[in-house]
Amino acid sequence: MSKKKSRAKKDLEVMKTLVEEESLACYTEHDAEYHFDSFSRDVATLYIREHVDSVNPVEYEMIERLQEMVRAVNPRYRVGIIYEERADEDEDEE
Question: Among 3.20.20, 3.40.1350, 1.10.3470, 3.30.70, what is the CATH number of 3-85?
Protein backbone atom coordinates (compact mmCIF):
# COMPACT_ATOMS: atom_id res chain seq x y z
CA MET A 1 0.00 0.00 0.00
CA SER A 2 1.39 3.40 -0.91
CA LYS A 3 2.09 6.02 1.73
CA LYS A 4 -0.61 8.24 0.28
CA LYS A 5 -3.29 5.52 0.54
CA SER A 6 -2.10 4.54 4.01
CA ARG A 7 -2.32 8.16 5.16
CA ALA A 8 -5.78 8.55 3.63
CA LYS A 9 -6.97 5.40 5.42
CA LYS A 10 -5.66 6.70 8.77
CA ASP A 11 -7.29 10.08 8.14
CA LEU A 12 -10.61 8.37 7.41
CA GLU A 13 -10.51 6.39 10.66
CA VAL A 14 -9.71 9.55 12.64
CA MET A 15 -12.56 11.42 10.96
CA LYS A 16 -15.04 8.61 11.65
CA THR A 17 -14.10 8.79 15.33
CA LEU A 18 -14.50 12.57 15.31
CA VAL A 19 -17.95 12.26 13.76
CA GLU A 20 -18.98 9.73 16.41
CA GLU A 21 -17.86 12.00 19.24
CA GLU A 22 -19.25 15.22 17.79
CA SER A 23 -22.59 13.67 16.80
CA LEU A 24 -23.15 12.77 20.45
CA ALA A 25 -22.31 16.34 21.49
CA CYS A 26 -24.64 17.72 18.81
CA TYR A 27 -27.43 15.46 20.03
CA THR A 28 -27.07 16.57 23.65
CA GLU A 29 -26.69 20.27 22.79
CA HIS A 30 -29.11 20.68 19.87
CA ASP A 31 -31.27 17.55 19.77
CA ALA A 32 -30.06 16.94 16.22
CA GLU A 33 -28.75 13.56 15.07
CA TYR A 34 -26.34 12.58 12.31
CA HIS A 35 -23.79 9.90 11.45
CA PHE A 36 -20.84 9.36 9.13
CA ASP A 37 -21.94 8.69 5.56
CA SER A 38 -18.91 8.80 3.27
CA PHE A 39 -15.74 10.59 2.27
CA SER A 40 -15.02 11.79 -1.25
CA ARG A 41 -11.33 12.14 -2.07
CA ASP A 42 -12.24 13.86 -5.34
CA VAL A 43 -13.68 16.89 -3.54
CA ALA A 44 -11.92 16.32 -0.18
CA THR A 45 -15.27 16.28 1.62
CA LEU A 46 -16.48 14.23 4.57
CA TYR A 47 -20.23 13.71 4.34
CA ILE A 48 -22.46 13.28 7.35
CA ARG A 49 -26.07 12.16 7.02
CA GLU A 50 -28.88 13.54 9.11
CA HIS A 51 -30.97 10.86 10.81
CA VAL A 52 -34.54 10.65 9.55
CA ASP A 53 -35.91 10.90 13.09
CA SER A 54 -33.67 13.78 14.19
CA VAL A 55 -35.81 16.16 16.25
CA ASN A 56 -34.06 19.22 14.79
CA PRO A 57 -32.42 19.52 11.38
CA VAL A 58 -28.62 19.48 11.40
CA GLU A 59 -27.27 22.92 10.54
CA TYR A 60 -23.74 24.02 9.69
CA GLU A 61 -23.53 26.11 12.87
CA MET A 62 -24.01 22.89 14.86
CA ILE A 63 -21.03 21.19 13.25
CA GLU A 64 -18.48 24.02 13.42
CA ARG A 65 -16.35 22.11 15.96
CA LEU A 66 -16.41 19.04 13.72
CA GLN A 67 -15.37 21.18 10.75
CA GLU A 68 -12.43 22.59 12.73
CA MET A 69 -11.34 19.11 13.83
CA VAL A 70 -11.57 17.76 10.29
CA ARG A 71 -9.46 20.68 9.04
CA ALA A 72 -6.89 19.83 11.71
CA VAL A 73 -6.58 16.39 10.10
CA ASN A 74 -6.04 18.03 6.70
CA PRO A 75 -6.66 21.74 5.92
CA ARG A 76 -8.15 20.80 2.52
CA TYR A 77 -10.94 18.67 4.00
CA ARG A 78 -14.49 19.98 4.40
CA VAL A 79 -17.73 18.65 5.88
CA GLY A 80 -20.96 18.33 3.92
CA ILE A 81 -24.42 17.43 5.20
CA ILE A 82 -26.76 15.02 3.44
CA TYR A 83 -30.33 15.69 4.50
CA GLU A 84 -33.03 13.07 4.70
CA GLU A 85 -36.46 13.89 3.34
CA ARG A 86 -38.89 14.57 6.15
CA ALA A 87 -42.64 14.35 6.12
CA ASP A 88 -44.09 17.66 7.27
CA GLU A 89 -46.12 17.45 10.44
CA ASP A 90 -49.02 19.12 8.63
CA GLU A 91 -49.05 16.32 6.05
CA ASP A 92 -49.13 13.69 8.81
CA GLU A 93 -52.29 15.20 10.28
CA GLU A 94 -54.25 15.02 7.01
Answer: 3.30.70
